[in-house]
Amino acid sequence: MENPVLSILALLAVLLLVVVTFGVGYLTLADWRDRRRQENEKREIKSTTPKRR
Questions:
Q1: Which residue blocks in the chain are alpha helix, DSSP H?
Q2: Max Cα separation, the chain?
Q3: Nearest 5°: CA angle at 50, between 40 and 47?
Q4: Distance of alpha carbon 29 from its chain centroid, rounded?
Q5: What's the CA gap between 47 and 50, in Å, rounded?
Q6: Backbone phi, then psi, for 5, in 5-degree steps?
Q7: One pLDDT digit (tens) per residue for the chain, 53 residues
Q8: pTM
Q9: Residue 3 carries which DSSP code?
Q10: Residue 32 to residue 27: CA distance in whole angstroms
C-alpha cells in the first residue's frame, strides 16, 4: 500500500514543475517581445534620422 504523504508530495512536485515550466515560457516570450519591440524602435529612429553629408 502506498503512503498518502508520498502521493501528495509527488503530486505537489508535478504541479510545481508545471508552474515553473509555464513561468519560464512566459518570461522567454516576454523577453522575445521586448527585444523585437526595441529593434523596431531602433529601426524607426534610424530611418527617421536625417543623414549628414
A1: 4-48
A2: 84
A3: 20
A4: 4
A5: 8
A6: -65, -40
A7: 579 999 999 999 999 999 999 999 999 999 999 999 999 999 988 888 777 76
A8: 0.70
A9: -
A10: 9
